[in-house]
Amino acid sequence: MSGIEGKVVAITGASSGIGEATALLLAERGAKIVLGARRPERLEALADRIEKAGGDATWARTDVTRREDLAGLVKLARDRYGKLDVLVSNAGIGLISRLDDLRVEDWEEMIDVNLKGVLYGIAAALPVFREQGFGHFVNTVSTAGLRIVPLQSVYAGTKNAVRTISEGLRQEAGDSLRVTVVSPGAVRTDFAERMDPAAKAQIDKMMETALSPDAVARAIAFAIEQPDGVDVGDIVVRPTAQG
After folding, report:
1. Which one from 59, 129, 155, 191 is the annotated catalytic residue?
2. Cα(237)–Cα(223) distance, rounded to whole angstroms?
3. Active site includes 155?
């Protein structure tokens, strides 16, 4: 029996990319998956795929900018499976641009999704984890916060804010809760679809050597499968070609 089998794992941003890959891998290893994202048709199709492969999954439309949606996702996990072992806060957007462009609405959206979305997840799951006496937060951040480059100032800022909050949460968590941050480098996802053309061209160039989402999913699984008392705090996963 693996350290994943039987665990109940809720995942935000689960309809594509890293979230989808993580859901499939954890379900294959015996976890019960609670899928959350904004595209219900994608969630329904993914849950059906998991169940046809012999897994167990449920889903709820989840907009992480709405605190009540995160509360609902956690409640769904408990109502269906009786507990929640892991919350993977993976939903994120990267509307990168030069600060001179003054795309303030994009800045606000990144703060709402990347930062406040994680905080809302903590607010929903932390009381449950305290009541249970166990629980694991896995927060997806980015190597953009480790090496700051032009166009990514606000995006990197939101990710580093999550990194800081996660470390504070880890220190407050005590000996019964675990906290992991995973920092992916370039990953083949639809990350660049809403960027301005100049920024999209930069990201598209990075995609030539980008990782498969499966590589990040395996890193998340590694953190989850560790025995009680072992806290994998920080994982960086990037292409060997990435500077």
Report:
1. 155
2. 13
3. yes
